[in-house]
Amino acid sequence: MTGRQVVVWANDSAPEKIPDGRLHYLWNHCIEGEHQRSLLAHVERHGDRLRDRYLRWIEELADTDCRGRSLVDKLELRNGLSYWWMTRAAERSPWRSDSNATVLRLMALEEMLQEESPPTVLLVGANRPVTRAVRGLCLRVGVQFARASPPRRSLSVQLKRLKPHPHTLQAIVLFGQLVCRRWRFRRLAEPTWPHGDHSVFFCSVFMNLDREEAEVGRHQSTYWEGIPGILDEWGWSHNWVHLYLGAQSAPDVDESINLVGRFNDDPSRSDTHTFLEAYLSIGVLVRVLRQWVRLLVQSIQVRPFTGRGARQGDSPWLRSVMAKDFVLSLRGFEALTNLWFVELFDRIAVEMPTQASGYYLCENIAWERALVHAWQRHGHGRLVGVAHATVRFWDLKYQQDWKAWERRLERGVPEPDHLAVNGPMAYRSLRGDEAPSGFILRCEAARYGRLVHRPDLRWSPPTGRRRLLVFCELSSTGTSFALSLLAAAIAKADRQIDVTVKPHPGYLPNSTELTAVGGQLVDGQVEDLLTDCDLVLVCNGTSSALNVRVFGWPMVVALSPTQLNLSDLRGDPDVEFVSTPEELAAFLSLDHQPPSPRPAEQYFDLDPSLTGWRRCLAET
Are strands 65-66 and 69-70 parallel, antiparallel or unpaired? Predict the structure, then answer.
């Protein structure tokens, strides 16, 4: 043992002073020094090893013993799908839960304690699950555990943290509102689905539409740019089931119904469209509620993350961190929406004539498990998940432990026959060379096809006021951090800053945040927006950073000290990440070099003839 006590600051605070003789492990800061270590910095330094360990650990949770049955079997629904694959833990999304980052921090803590061998660990400010996990870790490594509390929060802060209603009551109210809004989709006429070897199925979200094309009755989405045109060229039919997400940039319910009606009005066209919610019925709602009640009972009876069901070797001390997510997955509003997807996809798969092949936007989230299971259960053909966007290092919902792939399939997880990726960057991120032969397909980046003939943008060095363009992300946390960082940096910069803000289609910053930076909202393609700005600030979790990188505009990425690096440009030595107002103010004040564009082909497959897609579509 080193003889030095370790203090773990598991809250938003960092110690003001470093007492001699003690090591301080920081939970939410990347500051390191002689007496300070950062858990997040350790995670980033050893990302490959810790990511692999995390993926193995999550896979092992599926086999947790629950009164003589595995967790996967215990949560089996009436149609044979295990609900486990729709829970937050199995989904592994960093945008849905911070449990992933918490587990990774705790794995880092274990490694650091094994290296330091301290006599005592003093934990400051942790919540109950983290406290339980660290106590269990100390017991395992033979270190004495102690706990201290940080300064008490004010009463107003404590009240803000209270939940207004129990999860079950919130779920019922929100689900009732959802049904009332979506019931109108039943006005859509029942589609006549073409079928046969020359009929292709698509499942997509109803966003990013070409509005001019839509107004004249033609469906064109930037997610699938050019792909439907191949089928039209061949004389094949294509059947579309759309998911309505209610995003800020998407049409509202009534407009969406009218647009789909226009798409279907022209009998000479080969595409047929409907919404998933058009298949709603009283019977569907009854089955959803019945299965939800069963999940509620199981959430009380089955406690895999706080009980004694751990197997040897699966780090049982870690599992308490996942308990809250598990309860929310079984009791909360998301449980009802997950079951909604299960029932609706099952009904569509039954009523639709057998489809030879199908494609869907793949992000490995809960609704996709319902689609894949229903598709395969009812005997449809080849199914391809399309990873339409970039694949980031810490986007764990995409990442796989390929060594455990066969075991994963044996457990019954619904997986497509193939995963289509959009270029070398995504292929490398997924470690495609390690995947089962033929599972990962390389196709063109249809969504980024405009980069093939990207314009030669002109950039003029600013002489006075700086024009800053901010690209936001889907997460409210990441967007709020970037805008608050900017508000503080503007006061420290030695130049006047004019701010424009490009929101993510799924999240709109609030007026208070915009006012604080003097920001004006803008919309449009990246290349169109860049011509009206000098500098760019990009949120940590948006793929817009890669677009800006291709055009070479002066750019920084806002990285919160409480977050993993979710940027596509993680590891790029030429990209600057800022976490403090001083760092951002320095970027805003500097004179920057002219843009240095990067070849888009190093990130994406951009064959304008879509040769890869033609080959993929032909293999029905």
Answer: antiparallel
| The two structure tokens encoding residue 452 | 């093939």
Q: Enumerate residues 6+ apart whose C-beta is below 8 A from 428.
A: none
- Residue 98 pLDDT exceeds 50: yes
Residues 6+ apart with CB under 8 A from 160: none
Prediction pTM value:
0.91
> What whole-number distance in Å separates Cα of residue 524 and Cα of residue 248?
14
Task: Name the residue with tokens 């032969």.
Answer: 437
For the segment 458-487, the average pLDDT, to the nearest whole number, is 88
The yes-or-no verdict on residue 498 having pLDDT over 90 is yes
**Nearest alpha-carbon partner for 610 in 446, 381, 440:** 446
**Among positive and negative, which fits the CA dihedral 341, 346, 349, 351?**
negative
Tell me the C-alpha distance between 445 and 606, whole Å: 6
Encoding tokens for residue 402?
Answer: 């390929």
Residues in the chain: 620
Q: Tokens for 100, please give them.
A: 């992933």
For 220, the token pair is 């064109």
DSSP 3-state of 562: coil
Q: Which residues of 125-161 are buried (b: 16+ CB within 10 A; e: fewer)?
A: bbeebbbbbbbbbbeeeebeeeeeeeeeeeeeeeeee
> How far, in Å, CA of 489 to CA of 581, rounded?
4
Question: 302-341: per-residue pLDDT in tens?
Answer: 877 765 544 444 578 888 899 889 988 999 899 999 999 9
Q: Which of 309, 411, 306 is nearest to 68 (CA)?
A: 309
Distance CA 136, CA 141 (A): 9
